[in-house]
Specification:
The chain is an alpha/beta fold. 42% of the residues lie in helices and 15% in strands.
Length: 260
């Protein structure tokens, strides 16, 4: 029970890495608040966690909207009495043209608002609650593309994740005096909806075989791989770690030219 009695807000917790973290954190003893836009799916995931003996609620929230983020944090603290962990996981990508001068401006704004502004807003309103509780852990789900570029991803996605990287470092320095740690995860090619793999297809042999060829470690990048990295940062085992990033990419970043 590595998170026993801790209260965790997880954004984008209805699928992929966020859902895996929501289920794992609950199994490790956390009281989990799932924040996401899809209400029906969010209620389903929360109920599934409760039916397995965990403690979870769902709060409908678009992280790009200030008042919805404020409500998410309020609902979490009102329901459970505090806030110990924030996992900024919500994110989207624009799979349009990757060249900066060709990117659609509306798509650009949407990606930046969800990925970067959303994390900023969650930190902004979660930190005062963590200060009241004498500390906490903030985990930003970034990407291997926060420091590396590829032709297959949008400019806005790169910029949003690059911003997430420096936001992590800035927040780590700002809040260390309050015993609030801020770290980030850099996932590689993880099987999620963003990469056109639904939650129900994660155990499909054809999907597993296909995605096992994407990185040096010949196995599929599963959402649970990122969830375990988040669990480390959320737990007291990382009590002396802040401002750090953890690669979860199967070794892709260790080799030149592995963006297959």
């Amino acid at each position: 029970m590595r998170l026993e009695n801790k209260i965790a807000v997880i954004t984008g917790g209805t699928s992929g890495m966020g859902r895996a973290a929501s289920e794992l954190f609950a199994k490790e003893g956390a009281k989990v608040v799932i924040g996401a836009r899809r209400e029906h799916l969010g209620e389903y995931v929360a109920e599934s966690i409760r039916s397995d003996g965990g403690n979870a609620i769902f709060v409908k929230a678009d992280v790009s909207e200030k008042h919805e983020v404020m409500n998410l944090i309020d609902e979490a603290t009102n329901a459970f009495g505090g806030l110990d962990i924030l996992f900024n996981n919500a994110g989207i990508n624009n799979h349009g043209d990757g060249e900066p001068h060709n990117e659609d401006l509306e798509n650009f704004d949407q990606v930046m608002n969800v990925n970067l502004k959303g994390a900023f807003l969650c930190i902004r309103y979660a930190v005062p609650r963590m200060i009241e509780g004498n500390g906490g852990s903030i985990i930003n789900n970034s990407s291997v593309l926060d420091l590396r570029a590829t032709e297959t991803s949008s400019t806005s996605y790169h910029l949003s994740k690059g911003g997430m990287s420096i936001l992590t470092k800035k927040a780590a320095l700002s809040y260390a005096k309050y015993n609030i740690r801020v770290n980030s995860i850099q996932p590689g090619k993880i099987a999620t909806e963003m990469s056109n793999v639904s939650w129900d297809d994660l155990e499909t042999s054809a999907v597993i075989e296909h995605r096992s060829k994407f990185q040096p470690l010949e196995r599929m990048g599963h959402p649970i791989d990122v969830a375990y990295a988040a669990l480390y940062f959320a737990s007291d085992e990382s009590a002396f770690v802040t401002g750090a990033s953890l690669l979860v990419d199967g070794g892709s970043s260790a080799s030149f030219g592995t963006n297959r």
